């Protein structure tokens, strides 16, 4: 296949799409207002695994809802302004918290998750940054005896989809992570899970390889997109044109599509991180999810990255550090964290569609317009595989997996 194509958005998803198009012979221009991976793809927990296919709005959400509604939980907080302004998103999000929808979304997302690591490995081999990947597993720990439940919602999907999960006693947890304080009574290890030591740098290095291989990277803030029947016109300080366009603008994708007449049911799940030095002589070997504490702690190049749960606030409203402030003491109960590093507290917005499945496919009303966004909690890991599937579709190949569950018409109206 040959011809030119423009990808708007250089996060994990846009970079993944650009590289796979390039590998299929397209002349690719990748546009972003910032340097690659400066936004959501920068600040995540860096987990790449085959187990994150169960959506947050699974049928078990109803059991946790009374606790979440109190608006004091570290896992989920909400802002009334967002609920009032974006109530249809909430309505659809809750409507999908049932067994049938969980089954459909988990099965579809599993198709992405099982392929995610292989795609990253291929990119890392090409970009020479395999050292960023640790095959260390992902530790989920409990302060009580709850532990691994093979019959629970997650556990029964793991069994069905062949995800290895090793139940752990308090002693086994200490053996794996000797510097953890002895507060965890049970847990499990997701053996096949891996960890990236600097997600932002990883994607930047992929983008640098894309450029080295002949791709064009343009820094431009696109104020609006229009279509004259043949070409897309991208309004910026220096206007740009595109014969074919892929929108991979993460949490901003609905804004980009609005001037073309599209209404997209895209919401965000905001989250924060802060880096801490470990106390001298201590070490965390792998990502830790303190399930009862409501946070994730990940060992990164910059220090221990403490990430928060979900904040259902308007995408651009000011920071609210309540969840972060709530989990810092809990994290210190678990691990000897020292002072924060000099890095600022980071906030990002996971782009989420109400069925927790991304859109990967053609736009409903324009030829040569393609969409790749809505990767919620798993977009770092599924960026390259989503990029591959879309590039296959655009190039007239049969995609590695059925793209019907990811079709745009679910949530995009014209
Ligand atoms: C706290 C937290 C922890 C997470 N942990 C994980 C994890 O462990 N593993 C995992 O896989 N995922 C994780 N995620 C989710 C993951 O980070 C996201 O799903 C992913 O980064 C989304 O990538 P994206 O490319 O769609 O969006 P982005 O990375 O936000 O990229 C979109 C790009 O589009 C550009 N753009 C938008 N509009 C315009 C415009 N008008 N003009 C020019 N450029 C524009 C932006 O500048 C941006 O660079 C986490 C997220 C959070 C918040």
Model description:
By secondary structure, the protein is of the alpha+beta class. The chain has a domain at 1-59 and 98-127 and 198-266 and 353-414: FAD/NAD(P)-binding domain (3-Layer(bba) Sandwich), CATH 3.50.50. The protein contains eleven helices and 25 strands. It has helices at residues 12-23, 61-69, 80-85, 87-95, 99-127, 153-161, 170-176, 199-212, 253-257, 322-334, 379-394; strands at 4-8, 27-32, 47-48, 76-78, 133-134, 138-142, 165-169, 186-190, 194-196, 216-219, 224-227, 232-235, 240-242, 245-247, 263-264, 267-278, 287-290, 295-300, 303-307, 310-312, 337-340, 346-352, 359-362, 369-373, 412-413. The strands form six sheets. Strands 6, 7, 8, 16, 17, 18, 19, 21 and 22 form a nine-stranded mixed β-sheet that branches. Strands 10-2-1-14-24-23 form a six-stranded mixed β-sheet. A hairpin with a 4-residue loop joins strand 12 and strand 13 (240-242). The structure holds flavin-adenine dinucleotide. Flavin-adenine dinucleotide is lined by residues 9-14, 31-34, 38-41, 44-47, 221-222, 248-252, 256, 271, 273, 307, 348, 350-351, 373, 375-381, 383. Residues 9-14, 31-34, 38-41, 44-47, 221-222, 248-252, 256, 271, 273, 307, 348, 350-351, 373, 375-381, 383 line the site of flavin-adenine dinucleotide.
User: How does CATH name the architecture of the domain at 1-59 and 98-127 and 198-266 and 353-414?
Assistant: 3-Layer(bba) Sandwich
Listed once per kind, the bound small molecules are:
flavin-adenine dinucleotide
Total helices: the number is: 11
Q: Which class best fits the helix and strand makeup?
A: alpha+beta
Spans of at least 5 consecutive residues whose pLDDT stays below 50 are none
Rg of Cα set: 21 Å
Determine the strand fraction and express it as a percent band: 25-35%
The CATH topology of the domain at 1-59 and 98-127 and 198-266 and 353-414 = FAD/NAD(P)-binding domain
Distance between the termini: 29 Å
């Amino acid at each position: 296949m040959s011809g030119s194509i423009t990808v708007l958005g250089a996060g994990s998803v846009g970079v993944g799409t650009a590289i796979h198009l390039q590998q299929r012979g397209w002349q690719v221009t990748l546009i972003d207002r910032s340097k690659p991976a400066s936004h959501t793809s920068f600040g995540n927990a860096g987990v790449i695994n085959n187990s994150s296919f169960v959506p947050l709005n699974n049928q078990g959400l109803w059991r946790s809802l009374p606790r979440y509604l109190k608006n004091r939980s570290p896992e989920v907080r909400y802002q009334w302004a967002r609920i009032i302004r974006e109530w249809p998103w909430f309505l659809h999000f809750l409507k999908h918290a049932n067994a049938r929808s969980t089954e459909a979304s988990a099965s579809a997302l599993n198709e992405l998750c099982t392929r995610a690591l292989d795609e990253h490995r291929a990119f890392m081999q090409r970009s020479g940054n395999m050292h960023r990947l640790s095959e260390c597993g992902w530790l989920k720990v409990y302060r009580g005896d709850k532990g691994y439940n093979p019959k629970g919602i997650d556990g029964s999907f793991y069994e069905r989809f062949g995800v290895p999960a090793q139940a752990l006693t308090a002693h086994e947890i200490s053996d794996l992570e000797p510097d953890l304080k002895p507060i965890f009574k049970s847990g499990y290890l997701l053996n096949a899970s891996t960890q990236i030591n600097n997600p932002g740098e990883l994607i930047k290095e992929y983008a640098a390889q894309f450029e080295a291989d002949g791709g064009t990277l343009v820094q431009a803030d696109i104020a609006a997109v229009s279509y004259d029947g043949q070409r897309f016109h991208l309004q910026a300080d220096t206007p740009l044109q595109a014969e074919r366009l892929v929108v991979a603008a993460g949490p901003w994708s609905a804004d980009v599509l609005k001037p073309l007449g599209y209404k997209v049911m895209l919401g965000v799940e905001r989250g924060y991180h802060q880096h801490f030095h470990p106390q001298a002589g201590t070490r965390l070997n792998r990502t830790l999810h303190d399930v009862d504490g409501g946070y994730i702690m990940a060992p990164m190049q910059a220090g221990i990255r403490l990430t928060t749960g979900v904040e259902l606030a308007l995408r651009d409203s000011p920071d609210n550090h309540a969840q972060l402030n709530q989990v810092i003491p809990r994290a210190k109960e678990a691990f000897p964290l020292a002072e924060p590093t000099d890095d600022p507290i980071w906030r990002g917005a996971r782009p989420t569609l109400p069925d927790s499945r991304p859109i990967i496919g053609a736009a409903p009303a324009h030829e040569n317009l393609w969409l790749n966004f809505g990767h919620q909690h798993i977009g770092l890991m599924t960026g390259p595989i989503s990029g591959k599937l879309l590039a296959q579709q655009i190039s007239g190949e049969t995609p590695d997996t059925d793209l019907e569950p990811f079709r745009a018409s679910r949530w995009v109206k014209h």
